[in-house]
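Blinded run. Sample ID left blank on purpose so nobody reads anything into the name before looking at the predicted structure. Input follows.
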Amino acid sequence: MIKNRYIVLFLALPLFCSCSKEAGEEVKPNAPAGLEARIAGVSLVTRGGAATASDISTLGIYAVNSVSTETAYGTAPAGTYCEYKIDKGVASPKDAAALLWLFREKATIFSCHPALSSASDIASGGTATDPVPTVKIPAAAIGHTQSAIATVSGNVYDFAKPAYDYMYGVAYDDTKSSETAKYLTMQPVADNGHAGTSTSGPKVAIGLKHAFAQIKLIISKDAAYKGDAKITQVTYTRKMKTLKSDGSTTMSLKDGALANTADLADTHCSFAFAASGGVATTEATGDKAAPVTLVNYVLPNAASKSTFSVTVDGKAMTMQHASDPEWEAGNIYSYTITIKPTGLALTGFTVIAWKDESQPDIPTI
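Blinded prediction complete.
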């Protein structure tokens, strides 16, 4: 499956008037325009988090006037918020009575996923010339403790749920030569094109970027290990910043920066299985056994040492890792831990951007 780091939405701004424009007719500066979103096919496939177009069902749009003398959306940096539902790539207001009308006035379009439950959940910030709206992230977005995990076919346990894939939108320029370059550093500007004789505005392309990183713990069995390799619990411990328990951590809709995180502290990412005897790796072709794979979101964090603990066949095994790298938003950090007769060994490590299919998931060191 093609796996991309970013999600792209193309928002067309066609004019919707109560009557069609005749030759020579004066263009009404406040005639409303509708907002239509289209999702760019395979560009909406990611590794973890939002995996398919159907995973992105809503999108939050926040319009802020970009000209100092205009106030259709409020006095900048304050703006107007509207939630849109997405069905087969087409966006329409979740509440038909709350359509975000786009007037002749220009607006900077900020966007976020997941959409907010109400306009009061977005806070204006920054200045009139440099608006920086923010949204709060609930502590439940990242569950560091997963308990009573039921066994699933394939032994892949993915807790990086699409509903909590926090993303912010930037302008997307399809004319750029590389995929990375197509994601610009500023937000798109909407102008419905009422000026002059045009009756429809330009398309506004939004590329959504992830604010979180992911960790993937891959627990495999060495051929020399003669036990059943039944895993009861896996714990990864590292000094890291986390979401505030009171839900006050915020994400900037300008650049995805996270603020008001919990203080740096030793944090346990724990996975405990419901099965009394644990979950066994299953034998595969060759000497290796198919692994147990655990996936979850984490916040971007500075480099640190870490500890891996695995309870296997009723016995706790622990391994220290002295130099864990910095975690950056939009990357997946995969650790392959192999159960050996003498204990645990880190036998693979990769840093994979969510769009990079060329890298192996389980490398060999």
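Unblinding after everyone has recorded impressions. Residues 12-48, 193-200, 356-365 have pLDDT under 50 and may be disordered.
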